[in-house]
């Protein structure tokens, strides 16, 4: 199942020659058209002609999300504003967002890569796609929307939330694949269960593409069981077109990163030096085909690792492990670095635990994990609950080295996450 077999199976030498050629073009274009890069090159004494091999990539400057904000709104454009076709912004917590421009070629390429990614898992023109991502300024929904249309699928632009309507659409139009965040996937599972819907009997769902926030293998299994479908891990970020940067194939053993469009490095986030293959580090991406807003060595803040070896599907583009965290998500309690995903992994593997949780940090480094119980998680015996609480705290201690307080909540009592979930609430007095 290939969308573009030739590109997807290029032999390594040809792929690397293509990458070098595209990198040289990109460097020449930003040197000529983007004052920000021209100045960085001058500071580092780089001429575009210095880039003679892929190893020379390490001479180029990093680009950070702060650079995007400082050059808001049009400072990083490599084409005249009239040549742009679409504007997206990326979610910013404070201040101005990052403005991301697409030319016609960029819009086409983004759809092309999503089409490749979907077809890789067996999607065809006969499939019906219900897109549960947020439409609007985010790339998540629009880019996959265009990708599915390119294949010829019927696309239902449902957007997130409103689960009653989602269910009606899935039933009436026999939706076969969906695209959603992991937190909404968990919520929708609970919703179907509560309404007595058996996905295998009542729905036509086959596949879900889940991304936009990091999640664990345990969460994947919960969504697969709850929705009765195959969950594929997807990765993208607005700075790199949005979704379609890296997707899983049917083997579900890592995400193929489309290396004819993006050059990847995995570095130690503290030193900026590359880590050995297979070791975890921060993913750094350079765009090779973006026309309106090329970015060199963009620090994604996402922590992942490269999977060595070939994939049985025959694609030559190398694979990334699932994102285990965002270097920004990490928090420190009593001197220990903790990612929310470590806690999620323990919780979701635990029978009796529900699908929603939140971590609160308060006072002087006091950590509480508030977690919903499963519908059948409490038998009415308080002593059983207390014992369970102790066991769970102990399991967490082996994972994160700290024993948090556990607070059990009735199912459905935490706020519903229809977009990106807020997992950590930090109210510490520091
Ligand atoms: Zn594969």
SSE topology:
Elements: H1 5-8, H2 12-33, H3 35-43, H4 65-70, E1 84-90, E2 98-103, H5 104-119, E3 128-131, H6 139-151, E4 154-156, H7 163-172, E5 177-180, H8 182-194, H9 199-202, E6 207-210, H10 217-227, E7 230-237, E8 242-248, E9 255-257, E10 262-267, E11 281-287, E12 298-304, E13 306-307, E14 319-320, E15 325-326, E16 331-333, E17 336-338, H11 340-348, E18 353-363, E19 366-373, H12 382-400, E20 405-409, E21 424-428
The protein binds zinc ion.
Summarize the structure.
This protein is an alpha/beta fold. The chain has 12 helices and 21 strands. It has helices at 5-8, 12-33, 35-43, 65-70, 104-119, 139-151, 163-172, 182-194, 199-202, 217-227, 340-348, 382-400, and strands spanning 84-90, 98-103, 128-131, 154-156, 177-180, 207-210, 230-237, 242-248, 255-257, 262-267, 281-287, 298-304, 306-307, 319-320, 325-326, 331-333, 336-338, 353-363, 366-373, 405-409, 424-428.
Protein traits:
430 residues, alpha/beta, 9-stranded mixed sheet, 12 helices, 25% strand, binds zinc ion
Bound ligands, named by name, code or SMILES: zinc ion
Strand fraction equals 15-25%
Structural class: alpha/beta
What is the overall shape? globular
| Largest sheet entry | 9 strands, mixed
Low-confidence stretches: none
Give me the count of strands.
Answer: 21
Rg calc: 22 Å
Distance between the termini: 54 Å
Describe this structure in words.
This protein has helices at residues 5-8, 12-33, 35-43, 65-70, 104-119, 139-151, 163-172, 182-194, 199-202, 217-227, 340-348, 382-400; strands at 84-90, 98-103, 128-131, 154-156, 177-180, 207-210, 230-237, 242-248, 255-257, 262-267, 281-287, 298-304, 306-307, 319-320, 325-326, 331-333, 336-338, 353-363, 366-373, 405-409, 424-428. It has 430 residues and is α/β, with parallel strands linked by helices. Helix 5 packs across helix 6 and helix 10 packs across helix 11 (340-348). The mean pLDDT is 93. Residues 249, 251, 256, 311, 313, 315 line the site of zinc ion. Zinc ion is lined by residues 249, 251, 256, 311, 313, 315.
